[in-house]
Amino acid sequence: MDVVSNLLLGLSVAVSVQNLWWCLVGCFLGTAIGVLPGLGPAATIAMLLPATIGLPPLSALIMLAGIFYGAQYGGSTTAILVNLPGEMSSVVTAIDGHQMARQGKAGRALAIAAMASFFAGSVCTLLIAMFAPPLAAVALQFGPAEYFSLMVLGLVASIVLANGSILHALGMIVLGLLLGLIGTDVNSGAQRYTFGLPELADGIGFVIVAMGMFGVGEIIANLETGNRGHKTVMGISRLLPTGDDLRRMIAPTLRGTALGSALGILPGGGATLASFSAYALEKKVSRNRHEFGNGAVEGVAAPESANNAGAQMSFIPMLTLGIPANPVMALMIGAMIVQGIQPGPSVITEQPTLFWGLIASMWVGNLMLLVLNLPLIGFWVKLISVPYKYLYPMILAFCAIGVYSLSNTTFDVFLMVLFGGLGYVFKKLDCEPAPMLLGYILGPMMEEYLRRTLLIAKGDPQVLITRPISATLLALAVILLGVVLLPSLRASREAAFKDG
Amino acid sequence: MKAISSPKDFWAGVIYVGTGLAALWWGSEYRMGSAGRMGPGYFPRALAVLLLCIGIIALVRAFVAKGSPIGMTAWKPLLIVLASCALFGLTLPRLGLGAALLVLCLGSAAASREFRFDPVAAMGLVGLIVFCAIVFVKGLGVPMPLLGSWLEPVLGDALPWLR
After folding, report:
1. Is A345 helix (H, G, I), strand (E, B) or coil?
2. Which of A2, A35, A23, A13 is nearest to A378 (CA)?
3. Which of A82, A154, A430, B98 has a Cα at 20 to 30 A from A477?
4. Which residues pair with A191 in a beta bridge?
5. Which of 7-36 (B) contact A at CB < 8 A?
6. Which residues in chain A have their CB less than 8 angstroms from residue B51's CB?
7. What pLDDT shows up at residue A384?
8. For residues A172 and A493, is the Cβ–Cβ distance under 8 A?
9. How far apart are CA A73 and CA A79, in angstroms?
10. Any idea what the Cα angle at residue A453 is, between residues A450 and A456, rounded to 5°?
11. How far is C-alpha A202 from the chain's CA centre?
12. C-alpha span between B132 and B125 (Å, rounded)
């Protein structure tokens, strides 16, 4: 069979001593840096990218993939232990994971996260191997209208997921979309909202916005309420999940993996949308939904499996179309170009060893993470015993250095200060930063796709509803929005978040 | 005039309307183009108008709906944390990583209610600076100056390994 022979080809290169070594180094470094609060996968990859340039292309990509998985898992660890998600995709893990940690179940939460991630990673490796080539063909039929509608659906979904007022979720999305437009307009080359500052010509890095709003803003809010961080953390009773935990995580992990794989292929969705949607889904269907927000096992297993599945599936648009689904994939594309590889449909046929080697190494990397992290969990758990008053200056230091290292300019540090202040203000006003960040990533892409859609249709917006796939996606978005706006459902949604 | 009954809605509305107007104002020179040929001003303007509408709804709601009060603003942590991060940015190129981290950590630590001198914390701070210098600058090659442009001429000859 094709899939088997392709995977064997991939494995034969991925398990060479050299590539295994770089995969291990990547996983370890990725986790070690990703576990530092405030440093998500994008920042970690950006920081470690220069270190891989000297390697052969496949080793470099394998190491970067390892760093990515490691950072992803490290980010979840931090989300669970200190409630400081390094990036969007672990935001929802923090909700229940951190509650579990507060109840002294940190070890169990981490083990559940690791196992759910590994399961999702294994399934997705197989899925990618089977479906990447045919999916590339399907995705190629997506025109700009479909992409645009897809992103609208993604944004509407994030409104449903936002905790609190729907109006403010909408407002934050539009604010994010607008902020995303800062920089050079790709089409005309016009400088928009740059105020003549060359530092703004490429826009504001997503990591800066995320670190400011989630890192710095969060720290200020924590200091306001007094140092609640360290006193409520109980001792770690056990590291391995109980039988009950395992039983409870099976269905959410399966659902999370399915949802994550489905959403992960879509540009703009990836790990973030996947984890948010999986959490929302569990909250609706789980038998234990009353426990959500108070340390539900499902609330960790579902988003963790979904974000790993989504993260892995986001390689598909990157590898087959050369489209970054998220900032991390944008960095991967950058790394490929540095290595002299032009990402796109031709990679599968022209560089099969590279393509299949990378896919096989995904599974190897996931296995390595499980092997590496379960024994090291004790080490990560120790981090939480550091009192918050010692921890937060350190977090700030790593945030500042991390932001600086993105493009080696102090200008970015000042931007982080700005977004830190904004993050605190929005927190005070009950405006969720998550929808804003989603809008922020999608802003430039949506503009581009809308522009192309209307260009092809000669300015007639009806094309969005006359093309069947696009119409379906938009209809889903409208239904979703209608559902949250219905008074009766609205009341239950508010009740759900109040429980949470 | 009716009193504001939902201050959170009010201030969020102010932010939306303010941003929307600012986006329209600064974007007023961007070419609009037509729907078929969107110029650089088309999408920003559409978003700005949308944000303006959302802001107006929020403002209306602020006077109609009942909302919870905003609560006290934590000015001290807000200003201290932001200022120490900004100081990091200012000192890094001039006095180098060590001094910048010192300023950032000591400065931000002062925002805590439990701040006092503590030998363990002081050692931890020194450890952090050494760790960051070794891992980020030497290990990962982040081009951060260890001495900075002001200290370099003074200490550069005496401590050449810090260059």
Report:
1. coil
2. A35
3. A430
4. A184
5. 8-9, 11-12, 15-16, 19, 23, 26-27, 30-31, 34-36
6. 171, 174-175, 178
7. 56
8. no
9. 10
10. 145
11. 22
12. 10
pLDDT in tens, B86-141: 999 888 888 888 888 888 888 888 877 777 777 878 888 888 888 888 877 877 67
Cβ neighbour number for residue A159 with a 10 Å cutoff: 23
Q: How far is A418 from chain B (nearest CA, A)?
A: 8
Which residue, among A206, A351, A267, has the nearest Cα to A336 in the 3D structure?
Answer: A351
pTM of the model: 0.72
Average pLDDT, chain B: 84
In sequence order, the 6+-apart residues with CB closer than 8 A to the CB of A188 are B31, B39, B40
Chain B positions touching A390 (Cβ under 8 A) are 121, 124
Q: Closest by alpha carbon to A448, among A187, A224, A168, A220?
A: A187
Query: What residues does each domain of chain A span?
Result: 2-499
* ipTM for the complex shown: 0.90
- How far apart CA A441 and CA A444 sit, in angstroms, is 7
Q: Report the distance separating Cα A178 and Cα A186, nearest Å.
A: 15
Q: How far apart are CA A423 and CA A214, in angstroms?
A: 7
Note the pLDDT tens digit of each residue in A354-372: 888 888 888 888 888 888 7
Distance from first CA to last CA of chain B, Å, rounded? Answer: 65
User: CA A329, CA A335: separation in Å to the nearest integer?
Assistant: 10
H-only helix segments in A53-163: 57-82, 91-102, 106-141, 144-161
Question: Nearest to residue A272, comparing CAs of A329, A311, A305, A298?
Answer: A311
Q: CA-to-CA distance for A263 and A372, rounded, in angstroms? A: 28
Residue type, A369: L
